[in-house]
Each structure stands twice: as C-alpha cells, then as structure tokens.
Amino acid sequence: MTKEYTCIVCPQSCSLTVTEEKGEITVSGNKCKRGAEYGRNEHVAPKRMITTTVALKNGTIRTIPVISSDSVPKEKLFACLEYLYGLEVEAPVALHDVIVDDILGTGVSVLAARDAERAE
C-alpha cells in the first residue's frame, strides 16, 4: 500500500511517499530525518495539535485562546474540540494555566495561550 503526504514539519513541505509492505514502512521524498519520522507517524497513527478558544466568564475578553501541550490522536480531535467548545472558565487566567488536564483520556493537557484579567 502506498500513500502520498505533504510533510509539515518544516517550511520545505516535502512530498512524501509512504509505502507499507509486509509490515515494513518506507518513506521517500523527505529531505531530512524529521520528514521520515513524520511520514511514518502520519501513516501509522496521525496526531494533531489543538488550538482553539474557550469561553471566559467575568473576563476583560470573551474567550481565551488555548493550545494542547502535545498532539492528540487525529480521530479524537473533533471530540476534544467539541468538549472545549462546551467549557467556560473563570477569569483571571494566566499564560500556561491548565484549562483541561488529560483531555478525553489522551494524556494531553490544554493550556491557556495568554493572560486574561478579571473584569472590574
């Protein structure tokens, strides 16, 4: 089985060809080791970072940007987003505060991506 991917690890955006035969995975088209690793991972178990916003209660802004501490399995991405869209956190919030620990059992935390003051 052969699949084509575009590497997103660096700005070169290499066109990768990933071939799986008899349980062995080979990657071609990469210009660096990181591209080969990305191709293998994308073929076997794709993951994505989460970046979104969460509603903020009693803050000087209405929503707080958040980012995951690591990548989550791609098949859980939309469930994680749906969970975050249903949250409302209380101001104040500091940069890197944990908004959700171990989101949906992935072992990944969701962190505040900026400070947010409490409204007076």
List keywords for this structure.
three-stranded antiparallel sheet, five-stranded mixed sheet, 10 strands, CPE0013-like fold, alpha+beta, 120 residues, 18% helix
How far do the termini sit from each other? 60 Å
Secondary structure class reads alpha+beta
CATH class of the largest domain: Alpha Beta
Q: What is the CATH topology assignment of the largest domain?
A: CPE0013-like fold
Mean pLDDT: 95
* Number of domain modules: 2
Short description:
With 120 residues, the protein is an alpha+beta fold. It has helices at residues 33-44, 77-85; strands spanning 2-6, 15-21, 24-28, 47-48, 51-57, 63-68, 72-73, 88-90, 98-100, 110-112.
Describe the structure.
- There is one protein chain.
- The chain is an alpha+beta fold and 120 residues long.
- It has 2 domains: 2-44, no CATH class; 51-112, Roll (CPE0013-like fold), CATH 3.10.530.10.
- It contains 2 helices and 10 strands.
- The chain has helices at 33-44, 77-85; strands at residues 2-6, 15-21, 24-28, 47-48, 51-57, 63-68, 72-73, 88-90, 98-100, 110-112.
- A 5-stranded mixed sheet has the order 8-5-6-10-9.
- Strand 5 and strand 6 (63-68) form a beta hairpin.
- It is elongated, with a radius of gyration of 18 Å.
- It starts with a strand and ends in an 8-residue tail after the last strand.
How is the secondary structure organized here?
Blueprint: E1 2-6, E2 15-21, E3 24-28, H1 33-44, E4 47-48, E5 51-57, E6 63-68, E7 72-73, H2 77-85, E8 88-90, E9 98-100, E10 110-112
Parallel strand pairs: 5-8
Antiparallel strand pairs: 1-2, 2-3, 4-7, 5-6, 6-10, 9-10
